[in-house]
Design a protein that fits this description.
Elements: E1 13-16, H1 22-30, E2 34-37, H2 44-53, E3 57-60, E4 79-83, H3 89-102, E5 112-116, E6 120-123
Parallel strand pairs: 1-2, 1-3, 3-4, 4-5
Antiparallel strand pairs: 5-6
Length: about 120
């Protein structure tokens, strides 16, 4: 799809926030990942509860989730905050592909990743 690698090195359980392009969900599911979307209108506290309850890595554009005091990485199943502007599908998929290819065997559980177009920042 869109000229990107058709697979990611490891399978993931993902909770995709409603603020992330719907085609990212399609792309992840198409590469064999277990993806569900956040129900529309769900508040942040409920979003993170859902991710933890189902052991899913949250992928979101909501910068609130990068607050390590409110959402300590060690208490979650992994959070990826997308800081890509504008959030065009090809840019999102390219950045996610790069991140996953650099981390083929590392669990994101207990980690916060702030993903930008050309780099990422990891917090534990």
């Amino acid at each position: 799809m869109n000229g990107f690698s058709p697979s990611i090195p490891r399978e993931m359980r993902v909770l995709l926030d409603e603020d992330v392009h719907i085609k990212v969900s399609d792309w992840l599911a198409g590469t064999g990942h277990d993806v569900i979307r956040v129900p529309s209108g769900l508040k942040n506290g409920r979003v993170i509860e859902l991710a933890n309850r189902e052991s899913r890595t949250l992928i979101t554009r909501d910068k609130d989730f990068s607050n390590r005091i409110m959402y300590p990485p060690s208490r979650h199943s992994g959070i990826i905050v997308l800081r890509i502007h504008p959030p065009q599908l090809d840019k999102l998929i390219s950045a996610l592909t790069r991140l996953f290819n650099e981390w083929p065997d590392i669990s994101l559980s207990g980690k916060l990743v702030v993903l930008e177009e050309s780099e990422y920042h990891l917090f534990t």
